[in-house]
Design brief:
By secondary structure, the protein is α/β, with parallel strands linked by helices. It has 8 helices and 11 strands. The relative contact order is 0.23.
Amino acid sequence: MTAPQTLAASRTGNVRRFNRSAVQHFARSATLVAIVGGSGAGKTWLSEQLADRLTARSIGRLNSCEDPLVSRVSLDDFYLDRSHLPSDRRQRINYDHPRSIDWRSFYDFLSACREGQRALQPQYDFTSHCRRTDPKWCDPKAVLIVDGLWVVSRRAMRRLFDFIIYVECPEPTRLQRRLERDIAQRNRSEDEIRAQFERTVSPMHERHVAPQKRWANIIVGAPISDTDVEKIADELARAAGLCNSICSVV
C-alpha cells in the first residue's frame, strides 16, 4: 500500500479519514484490514466490533448463512517461539520490539489469506512465551481483520493490506487497560507490569508503533463510540465491495 504525497483528510466525530488511492480498488480474493495502535489502545475490541457488524450485515443479506464472510487474526500469535530457551532467559527478552515477531511466517500466512487460500495460524502462550502445540486453520473469507502493534511497520506487510486503521489512545488509559488485562489473563503483578511499561512499552511505542499512523486510511481516537464503529464498518463494507459480493450470492 503506497501513501500519496498529499492527503485529503475529513473528520466525522472521532474518526478521521484519509483519502488514499489504494483503498478504491482491490485485486485479490480477500480484503485485508489492519488495525494498529499502542498496547491497550483497544485494537482487539475494535476488531471484534467490526467483525460482528460486518458479519451481521452478511448474515442479514444471506438470510440463513452459517458461514460469515469475515474472520479475525492477531499479530500476537506470531511471536517467535522461545521454547528452546530457559525460562529465565525468556523473561529478559524485549517483547515490545518488532524483532520479537516471526515476520516470515506472518507474511506467508497473510499472502495465503489474501489469495483466498486456507492457512495455518499459530497459537501463542504469553505465560510461557512459547507457541502452543495446537495451531488452527484459518479458512478463506471475504474480509480478514488483523490487529497488532506493528502490523504495517514493514513495507512488505503494508503492501498486503487494503485498508489500515490506527487507534489513538492516551498513555495513562493504555497503561490502566494493560494492568487490568495482564493481571487477569497473564498472571503478572502490578509492579512488574508498570516496570515493563516504563522500560520498554512506552519507548517502543514512540519508536515503532506511533509512526504507523502515517499509513492509516482512518485514525480513530479513544474512547471509540458505537457511532464511530458503525461509520468504520460502513466504510469497510463499501471499500471491500462486500455488499456486491453478498448480493451476487443471493
